[in-house]
Structures are given as structure tokens and as C-alpha cells.
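Target protein
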Amino acid sequence: MQSLNSWLTIPEKSDFSIYNLPFGIYSTSDEGPRAGIAIGDKVLDLTFVANLGIFAGLDFNHSVFKKEYLNDFISLGKSITNEVRLRVQRELCDENSILKEVDGVLLNKDDVSMHMPVKVGDYTDFYSSLEHASNVGKMFRDPENALLPNWKYMPVAYHGRASSIIVSGVDINRPKGQIKEDDKPPKLVPTQKLDFELEVAFITGKKTELGESVSTNNAEEYIFGLVLFNDWSARDIQKWEYRPLGPFLGKNFASSVSPWIIPLEALEPFRVSGPDQEPKPLEYLRYSGSKSYDIHLEAKIQPEKSKNPVTVTKTNFKNLYWNMAQQLAHHTVSGCNINVGDMMASGTISGSEADTYGSMLELSWGGSKEIDLGGGEKRTFLKDNDTVIMSGFAEKKGVRVGFGEVRSKVLPVKK
């Protein structure tokens, strides 16, 4: 990859390097939501950049930068969105750039508030980690036959609730629902087994018509970028309700996402081969080339009275058995149409070792062992006023592309 140098001072190990330049929606105390790009500890105002003529010759209405969501901008297509990003990149590397001379185009990230980057029309949550699916199967079904018969033949998924997807920094209330213990009748109570799920989601950037299918060969044309995704889960509610139709109240109360969308093109240097798939998938799920990405992921928990969060797991996006191209191909093979801004989450990402599991369910093995958070704090599942913080980055030969973080605090159940 070509080495790039910016005239802007970018903190060492910043997730938002000159190689990244993710898109997001932000606001300030005196102006409403609008589009920006993250660079180091700054936010670049894209409306300001457009007014300076940097996007001259690109055929699009600059009003897309003044919208509350990025959907209209993303809808312009990669020929525009990629060029916008590349022109910003060139300006940030050009010592004679007009961006150096104009006040107000670069804002301190601490002076802005971040918002949901897209209006999510539909949300699908996959179940694509072999290790996670195996662990859950061992705990709840059969240690010898952990996977259901269909799991290695298709990317299993369920349709989730788009309206309760929230941006990092928005806290959640502990949910309540029906819980059944042993032979007792079910009762409506707050969950006692609140969990996180460490995931990555992709955002679709191109629509299809009803009846169309997307192949694994061209799936990446339909993927605009990625965000971190915390799919909150109430395990005791989920356990009682999930048969026969799957997750409902145990999942629909909240999912949290990071605010900056990392363009798929920024992750190009980090492509890797995925795991071997046996048995060989059906023809429409087969693919060529490297469709996985080497992205380091981490989850931390910070108890209310603790000053420092504690890392409880580290895993990697490349661990997924089913990749994004296969997920999208399977999602649309029925003729299901997709729209710009749809969000498709990976499912919990777990590795093969105990400290790489992507959920408290696995880390505590169903609540049978405690996780030490220091200072006398131990957890099997999340307590009220715990804060969960997830982060992720890819790094290779000095090139770093990060996601920032997604964080949210667990508040008591709302009466």
C-alpha cells in the first residue's frame, strides 16, 4: 500500500488515520446533524469542504451532507462516495491544501455529538461464528452434536428490530420479559442474565429489486462499510421464548453501534482467507479470493464504582465461518430485496480459546463460572450500571484502520 503522510498532526495509534477516513453524522452546540469524516482527533465538515470547491466536477447535490443520515449520500454510489473520500485524503496530504488555511473546517471531536449514521430500514442478525454456535449448542443441546444439521449449509440468521438500534453513548434500560425457571410457571420479571454480543455489522450501499439476487462475486458492490455492533441479549428471556420461532424480546430491546462507518475500501489491505468450509457449500455460496478481514476486536466492562474498564475478551473478525459475501448472497437468494442503509450483523464473534469468546454466556459458561473484574467485582452476567465498551482495529505494516468504540451503560429497568 502506498505510504501516506498528512500535514495534520494525527495522534500515534489513532484509529482514524489518513488511511481510514470513515463517514459519520455529527452535530455541534450551534448546528444540527450533518455529515463529516473522522481524522485523528478531528472531525472534517463535509459541507464546508464542498463549499471550498474540493468536489468540483463530481455530479451530485451537496445538500446530501446536510441530512440527518448518510443514506442519501451512500445512495450516490461508490463512484461518488469513494471519490469524495479520496479527494479528502489527497487534500489532507497536500501541504498546499486550502484546508490548512480555512478556520472551521476541522473540529475537535470532543466538541461534537455523534448520531446514528444511517436510517436503518431493516436489520438482520446472522449466526456465523462456528465457535459461538458450537459453544451455545454444547451448553443447551448436545455436547456431542452441538450444531444443528443446517448450520454448515447456510448462514443462519433472524430478522431483528431496526427501531431499537442506537448509537454509541446512548444508555439502555434492563429489559423485562417472561422467564421460566425449572417446573415453575413463567413470570414477568427483569432479566437476570443480561449479556453483550461482540459483533461487526455491514451497511448496504446499493438497493435491489424484489426478485433479484446478489452473488458472492459482486456482493461487495452492495456493501458500503462496517460498524461495531453490540447485540444486547437477555439470555433467560431468550431461553424460554426462542422455540419455535427464534429470538424476540430477548433481543429486540436494544442493539448499539459505533458512529463512524468504515468504508469497505479502507479495509482492503487487511483481506485474509477465511476458514475451510466442509462440507462444500451449495454453488450460490461458493466464492473465490479472500473475503474475510483481519480485524482485532475487544470488549471491556467497567463497573459503576471502577475508574478503569477491564478487558474480558479479545477476538477477531476473521474467525467467522460465513463471510459477508456469503451472508448477502444467502439473504437475497430468495429474491428478498435490500435497501440502502440496511444493517446486517455478523452474530457473536468467538475464537477457539476461552478468552476469545464474544459473549458473557460463553465467558461464564452459562453462569457456571465468575469473571473477575478486579476490586472485588465479579460477573457471570451484566449488572445495573455496568458499562460495556467495544473497540476494533486492523493494522498491518504501520497502516492502522480503526472503528473507535461503541459504549453503553446498563440502567435499571424502567418502571
